[in-house]
Specification:
5-stranded parallel sheet, alpha/beta
């Protein structure tokens, strides 16, 4: 199977090259759509300075299992219908946190469409916990 794939790539190098270029462009486009990614340190600085609010988009059960201090919780599948709850934070950057980064980009896009400034935590709560930063239950 692998040898056939390699043989195809060699025999059809133009097609293979075009596929790789398109794949890279798709990945770059998708990564940029979700807004800026922040590190754990950048998130901490924004929140401590009063410029940012953490929005955790994980399910309530996961959120209750441990979240960043003072984080708001609106599950990603309910974000569009509950976006009005965030109006009082419109002047701040909403920093979207999920489990590992899989839903944060989509949530950021929805928030940006609604006129909010949004960024995502790179690596999600897994990154936060990986750096032994505090979580509350």
């Amino acid at each position: 199977m692998l040898s056939q794939l390699i043989e195809f790539a060699i025999n059809h190098y133009v097609l293979s090259s075009l596929f790789v270029v398109l794949l890279i462009l798709l990945l770059v486009t998708e990564l940029l759509k979700g807004g800026k990614s922040l590190s754990n340190r950048e998130l901490t600085q924004k929140v401590n300075s009063g410029e940012g609010v953490v929005l955790d988009v994980r399910a309530k059960k996961e959120f209750d299992g441990g979240h960043i201090v003072d984080a708001l919780n609106i599950p990603h599948d309910k974000l569009v219908s509950r976006i009005a709850e965030l109006e009082k934070h419109r002047g701040k950057t909403l920093i979207v946190v999920d489990a590992m980064g899989q839903h944060a980009g989509t949530a950021c896009r929805e928030l940006q469409k609604a006129g909010f400034t949004a960024a995502k935590l790179s690596g999600g709560i897994a990154s936060w916990r990986g750096d032994n930063l505090p979580v509350v239950k």
